[in-house]
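agent: user wants the full assembly modeled, not chains individually. Plan: 1) parse entity lines 2) check alphabet per entity 3) run joint structure prediction 4) return tokens. Steps 1-2 passed, three entities, 511 residues total. Proceeding.
--- entities ---
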Amino acid sequence: MTTARAATILLGKELQLEFRTRELLTTTVIFALVVVVLFSFAFEPTAAESRRYGPGLLWIAFLFAGSLMLNPSFAREQANETLDALRMAPIAPFAILLGKMLANFIFLAMAEAILVPVFAVLYNVSFSGVAGRLIFVLALGTFGLVITGTVFSAISAHARMRELLLPLLLLPILTPLLIASVEATASLLVDQPELDRTWVAFLAGFDIVFLTASWLMCDYLLEE
Amino acid sequence: MKNFESLFAAWMVVWAVFFLYEVTVARRLSKLQEDIERLKQQLREG
Amino acid sequence: MKGRIALAFAAAALMVFAGYAALYIAPDEKTMHAIQRIFYFHVPSAICAFVAFFVVFIANFAYLGTRQQKWDWLGVAGAEVGVACSTIVLITGPIWAHPVWGVWWTWDARLTSTFVLWLLYTAYLLLRGFLEDPQRKATFSAVFGIFAFLDVPLVYFSNRLWRTQHPQPVILGGSNSGLDPMMGKVLLISFVGVLCLMAMLIADRYRLERLRWEYEELRFRAESRAAEEGAKAPRAAAEMR
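--- prediction returned ---
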């Protein structure tokens, strides 16, 4: 079985599992909403300020929500030692990792799909005219988040204090991604919105570097 | 020299960080060496 | 043994000489006067932090490739010393900035990047603390270490790109503009001194880790020997009856 096919099947399994209870999705969305509301207490959201601080707020909300959401990715496998079963299946180890990465991407993307409109309404920020480009930037940033987050979920699943450890490992690594995503998003909110090519290229580079690194080191991540 | 106190503070920080680190490592090293000698002795006798 | 003593002596001598040179030999800077001399330890510490983290990267790579425990020892040694050097950079930076600019901290590219670096490798050390199984600890921290080092150029690059969009005061005018040759020489002496000191600290910390491993092995042998003898005694007693 090719890696792609195995990953797709595993992705289907992850989605099926999640949609049975939808608890991860709902909690992630609610948590991100809480963060977005909290920010309104931190500064007085006038239109100009919202456009200036908006992108940063949004991405911080995604980072926090993402860090919490990524934990169960591998932690869930521990209860019934299902990871051993996956390992013994005749599939490439990277398929397991990739399947989870794609599943996490979809979950986070769904959360973002709800959050961005809510944010736009609450802070009076208009995304009209840039929706397509915004989705592109969101996708690139989210993908980077999910790649590194899934890898670190595999690492922290075996550690003590994993709920605290995962953000601790993830957030410093993601600072370049945060800068790039915020700047790329911000460039879409100015009067003459234009997709900032430098930052988009940077995001793509970030994703490629860490996807490759995950692929090269996946055996070590999934060993007994 | 102007601002000499700040320079002195910085120099103290540099010295302190390196020195304290070396001291903690050296202390643990000598304690470990003692413990190892003790264990080796124990294994020889036993 | 001789090598270690020689290294310790070289490090101490160089650091003392560098201190003297930084204070008396180096020429006085026009605008900042005495405080500028922090530069002679701030910059070498920053470079040595990076060198130490590079050592960690090599060690991580080597561990994953060979599975020899000694690379894990080198990794933790390099990370701790790197964090120590970064701490020095992060403390001397504000000490310099306050009299010169009136602010303790500025989010310029270099200081911010150093801060992130400090966080990354502190996370590396904390990760090790939370993993219990020694092999898993070594493997997983090696993976994280490699990710962290791959992130380093990205951190620097993204910060620089970001900060050129929002211009900040130029830090340490002496390092951007042409450097007075005498300043350069003092900087070099200081750099070699800090480098020797760094090497000495890594070597000692490595040795500590190696001895810990030896201690655990000895302890295991002693305990299993005691368990064996504990099991033998009742059998011997039974045979005697």
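agent: reporting back. Residues 19 and 25 of chain B are 10 Å apart (CA to CA). The longest helix of chain B spans residues 4-45.
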